[in-house]
Each structure stands twice: as C-alpha cells, then as structure tokens.
Amino acid sequence: MPRVFFEGLERCLEVEPGTTLLEAAERAGVALHPDCRFGWCGSDPLILVEGEEHVSPKEEDEAENIAFNHFPESVRMACVTKVYGDVRVRLFNL
Ligand code: FES
Prior knowledge:
The chain contains two helices and seven strands. FE2/S2 (inorganic) cluster binds next to loops.
C-alpha cells in the first residue's frame, strides 16, 4: 500500500492506490481547507517533496490553476492528485 508522509508534521499513513492527497490529509488530521475539490480554486496546495513518479499527472484544470496562482512547479492540488506509491509532501503556506 502507498504511504503518504507529511513532512514537518511527522504524520504518515498508508492509503489505497488512487486515494487523493486531500483524502489522505483528512484521514491524517491535516487541515487543508479545500473548497471546490475539482482542482480549480487553489485552496489546497501541497508541495510534493518526493514521489512525483507515484502520483497522477496534472490535468489541464489543475495545471492552469497552478500557473494562474503562480505556485511553484512542485505544488499539486491535493484534491485531484491521486497517490499510487510512496510520497512525501509538505504544507504550502498561502
Ligand atoms: S479544493 Fe479547489 S483546488 Fe482543491
């Protein structure tokens, strides 16, 4: 089972493949304050520190949102990023 490690909070949990980072955060008690849950609004950014090859690729809406908000390339919207292997993430302070 894939593991999601929340760097800085020292929380880690195992998830089913295909679980979103937002679902993992909610189960781990990590508050992200999501709004749309479709990758459009930019309210749940996470920095993907390790494991880029273990998550779903950016869809067009997410990529446009990241560019519009001038987020770094390492940022993913937690609500639409699905996990298929071990990843390490960190909160992005808005
Ligand atoms: S909740 Fe809106 S981008 Fe994730």
